[in-house]
Amino acid sequence: xxxxxxxxxxxxxxxxxxxxxxxxxxxxxxxxxxxxxxxxxxxxxxxxxxxxxxxxxxxxxxxxxxxxxxxxxxxxxxxxxxxxxxxxxxxxxxxxxxxxxxxxxxxxxxxxxxxxxxxxxxxxxxxxxxxxxxxxxxxxxxxxxxxxxxxxxxxxxxxxxxxxxxxxxxxxxxxx
Length: 176
Description:
Pfam family, one: DUF1572
Distance between the termini: 36 Å
Protein name: DUF1572 domain-containing protein
Strand content: under 5%
Structural class: mainly alpha
Number of strands: 2
């Protein structure tokens, strides 16, 4: 196995790990949020959890369906419609969420190290597979951060931290 192949394999595995980590953060946040808060916004210009979830679902299906062979912005995608609140039930939103992530993970798991430097198109623009994956890591990380912040806001003092709690960092420092 060449060094390039090894690096590509590590990149693919790390990308899968990064997406799994993002999903886990959002899932743990949703679990702490009452359904009524899925439709609320913090101001007129902000998106609700429902809208963010619908947008991510639409993006995931569009970007990752036929990833290597068709443009990542599919003709059938209604991106503008993703930003309209439909008041889907929590169960419907979570089902869409899971469907979107399944498409992402299946596509990533099917990629080979040889695919990493091949080219795909997103909105007519050429990207290496590596660039396209990094684009989505950044995009989903941005939205998962919004999800966590909204859920934390709605939970207020009932929020259970997703990482090291305030004032607890010293417990996690390595001893030398």
